[in-house]
Amino acid sequence: MGRLTKSHIIETVVWGLIVIIFFGFSFEFNREIEIYKFGATGWPRTILVLLGLVTLGNLFHLYRNGSIGDAGRVGQLETDEEMTYNSLRDYSKLLAILIGPLIYAILLKPVGFYFLTPFFISYIIVIFGERRLKFILGVTLLLYLILLLLFVVVLNAPLPQGNMSPFYDYSAFLLKLNTQLKQLSIW
Amino acid sequence: MIEHFLAGSATLFGDPFTIGVFVFGVLGGMLFGAMPGVSMLTLCAILLPFTAQLTASQGVMLFAVIYCTGTYGGAITAILFNIPGAPENAPTAFDGYPMTQQGKAGKAVGAAVLCSAIGGVASAIVMMAATEPLAKWAIRNIGPPEIFALVFFGLAVASSVGGKTMWKGWMSVLLGLLIATIGQDPVGGINRYNFGFADLAAGIAFVPSILGFFAVSEIFIQAEKKAMGKFTAPKVGLSFPTFVEIWFHKIAVIRSILVGFFCGILPGIGATLAAFMGYGEAVRWSKDKTSFGKGNIEGVISSETANNAATGAAMIPLLALGLPGGALTAMMVAVFQMHDLEPGPLVFYNSPDLIWVVFAAMFYANLCILFIGLLETKTILHLLKIPFQFLAPLILLLASIGSYIGRGLVLDVMVMFGAGIIGFLLRRSGYSIPGIVLGIILGKIGEQNFAQGMQMVHYDLLTYLSRPVCLILIIAGSLTLFSGIYKAISTSLNSKA
Fold it and tell me: ipTM score here?
């Protein structure tokens, strides 16, 4: 097994699966293009073959050297070292960090930016370890107002309004307020 | 040239409203470039509809000015937070962020200000003096084979920086190229890898994936460190680089100006490749290669000079050939079209006033980087004093808005957070995020130009390589690639299993 660890094998299997799955799906668009000899699959399949070869090269490197990097490589921060997770609590923290924002993105369409954002701000502040309630609420309000001021009042940027009541109504109320404020400032 | 420049300056500063547009562009570009999460592209996407209310010269000038100052602004977030404001600032983070961790943020930002201004001013001067002859040279000598060869060279350079090993560098670049194949193929328009999602027919949008890989993954890494009790706040260092320190790297500055300008001329390549190649060349010619990536100021100098040197040059294909060199110059084409103008050779004869107002504005915008940049640096460095738990939600929300605004799709926000998760996992395993991003950016361009080049030479590789510029670039790329492979294999063989 050389210096291979379980995580190295998982890493290689994941890359191998990417190559196999993408190669398999390439048959879906394996059609000839009259003006181009290599067709629609030529370029992606070349990439996949190269990726497969480089993955084998990487496996060989891991087998001989383990996780040790090449000497003199540029751009790898020493602070990007692997963290060690000792308990279920550590894993749940990591999961909360990674999944929370994705849930925010999924909820944006039905709930909308205007209603959802204050909750998201508070969530991120808490995830980052802040526990003082007045700071959580104060900063949430401040950031929410800054974003509304910049993107809604100043730039009129179109943001997701949601498509479910009462969230949509809340967005509509804020936008109506913004229009009225602008009309007032014109007068 | 001087009379034209003075006439352009007079038009620019002769009308208070035009001055206002110029100042808005300078400050807006700097602000949006320096705000982690959004970029100059976000600002331009928001402003595009409003340019219909401006004259053609004001509209194009506004975008050109934002391009100059926004390219510089993105360096600040790269240096302070390891979040490049735009892909062209990614190599700046390689050395800029380690400098911040060492308490030398002031020196890094100061070097970025100075070198962005030097690169930008030099580029603007060459652009004014040589747009027409350069355009003629480019028409004769640069075609799809040369562009593909430069993409190949750029990818070879990108694979040699960023990853923990050469293999991981290449895997990152190839992953980026693979992601770029999602959507329609550039020759026949056949849908590839849309997995049943209609929205994927247009491909993975460029801005959300970049924001995800750079900004969101960095926030996740900092959040993880906080959660595990390993977070250390960066030190605030206010000392600026001395003139002697910059003078010591004058060769790197000159080399980066040349690299940046050459990359900028080529349509579709732009400032991103310029920054990577400027950085790569700095490493290649340095006597102390091992210091790069650990806080060598020459890394910041090289990439920032090169990317700003590309801004002026990027106007050449746009104005002389009508070919946009990137997302922002593509929006400038839209501004031209809104005013019933077509960028291309005729614009020099039909609208010389417009051209020289734009040239003059870009020159002054680069000078503004120097003066306003130095003034604002100390203020910006105080951003580091804001506790990260309060800065993180702002960055994530700015990034979400930046992703959404481009196409008005919530899917893009999901793509951004998805890319953030993938980026987080890949960074943990030593892969190169800038390599992935460069692969995404250059993938379509590379494929399109390879296909066109092959059709041009009737699939005869010898004819392909008989073009001198193409041959030089292919040789340079191959040398970079094979020296990397040789080093990687010899490292593996010399170590005991």
Answer: 0.89
